[in-house]
Amino acid sequence: MQNKEDRLAITHLGEEQSKYMNAVVPPVFMNSLHVFDSLESYASHQEDQAYVYGRAANPTVHILEEKAAALEKGAAAIAFSSGMAAASAAILAVCHAGSHVICMRDVYQPVKNILNRYFIPKMGITVSYWDGIDLNRLEDLIQDNTDMILLESPATFVFTVTDIAGAARVAKAHGIKTYIDNTFCTPLFQKPLTMGIDIVMHTLSKYIGGHSDIIGGILVVQDEELGKLIRETIRELFGGILGPMEAWLGIRGLRTMHLRVEQHQQTAMEVADYLEHHPKVERVYYTGLASHPQAELIKRQQSGHTGLMSFVLKGDPEKAVKAVNSLNVFEIGCSWGGFESLALCPLINYKKEELEFLNLNGHDSGLIRIHCGLEGADVLIGDLEQALEKI
Ligand SMILES: *Cc1c(COP(=O)(O)O)cnc(C)c1O
Asked: Does 48 have pLDDT greater than 80?
């Protein structure tokens, strides 16, 4: 069972029912502005922090932010129209033209894409990639102009885990800001701000939303000044605030997140165990398995595991394509975190150099990533069994 404070934040925190005619569920504030009694009260709005215009703040969005800040033990949360809007906002808030950034090698690919296609060519930012594992190497990569370290743990494909407290310690000693994508663990299974990280990011489309029906993102920070910069300069002026309907669905998704993630985890443990013992499976990558190369570190910093894993079949990587196409319950699609189970071969078209960059080999191009949804372990194992029989 998750901790008490988290359960209360999920269910009740930030919901001032008396303001909303005692409705048990807060309304969707589908308005673009708020009005005032007089010009004087309009002119003084900044001092009393009233809501004025929807690009700056919205009451429904604010409830979601209050919950996210409490769950991550942060001082402020700022919600955006997507996870990538949130990630970009974090880089914009910390870096300036000419900054050097250290990026963990396995971070979400679109983050590397925005570095390559925008921040490097347009802002003269330079990037060094780090394997996420060797802290001495991290120290060696630091330059005089290093302003930010981008992390994700666990990270996609092979679920590499980084020593969050260790990386934060190295960064702090050099006055460098740290960012981590905590989407996989949700704030329930990992709280990076308590380990010294400066900025935590969550995508709402995954376990927070939980129903595959929203796009959104959120940043949570410990430092109020940094929070103010992100809210009042980056979000308000770049204009990337989360929509009120999405915020409302995010609040609704959150209400059952603690129950769902437990179920996803339990199912995934059974599926991972099944796959690990299957004669046609070469290797399973899952943070919940004792065979994960960083099992000790995982135990130290994560209190739970996701419904996501990946595995590689023995023999020709093309077998993976046949296996995935033979699945009936698992749908084929990107993303994850919803009620539905999903499967994908994310590396099948990767070139040799791209695999080498990730420290993977040609055989790994047949890696199958699955998300275990809420259909139940018996259903999913049955589906995998019949698909693996076909290869
Ligand atoms: C989906 C995902 C994102 C991107 O979020 P968007 O809301 O789609 O922009 C970022 N990080 C991780 C780990 C993700 O899975």
From this structure: no
Give the pLDDT confidence of 303-313 residue by residue, as tens digits. Answer: 999 999 999 99
Q: How far is the CA of 285 from the centre of ligand 1 (A)?
A: 20
Q: What is the best residue among 91, 201, 203 to mutate for testing ligand 1's pocket, by most ligand atoms within 8 Å of CB?
A: 203
> Of 201, 229, 253, which residue is a domain's last?
253
Q: Is 205 in the same domain as 330?
A: no
Same domain, 227 and 331: no
Angle at which helices 257-276 and 377-389 pack, to 10 degrees? 30
**Considering its fold, how many domains does the chain have in total?**
2
Ligand 1 pocket by Cβ (under 6 Å)? 82-84, 108, 181, 183-184, 203, 205-206, 215, 217, 335
- Read off the pLDDT of residues 132-147 as tens digits, 9 standing for 90 and up: 999 999 999 999 999 9
Give Cβ neighbours of residue 127 (< 8 Å, ≥ 6 apart).
100, 101, 102, 103, 115, 119, 120
Q: What are 6-41's pLDDT values in tens digits? A: 999 999 999 989 999 999 999 999 999 999 999 999
CA dist 251 and 61 (Å) reads 9
Q: Are residues 58 and 169 in the same domain?
A: yes
The whole-model pTM stands at 0.97
CA distance 146 to 102: 7
Q: List pLDDT tens digits, range 264-323.
A: 999 999 999 999 999 999 999 999 999 999 999 999 999 999 999 999 999 999 999 999
CA dist., res. 340 & res. 330, Å (int)? 7
Domain that holds residue 275: 258-388
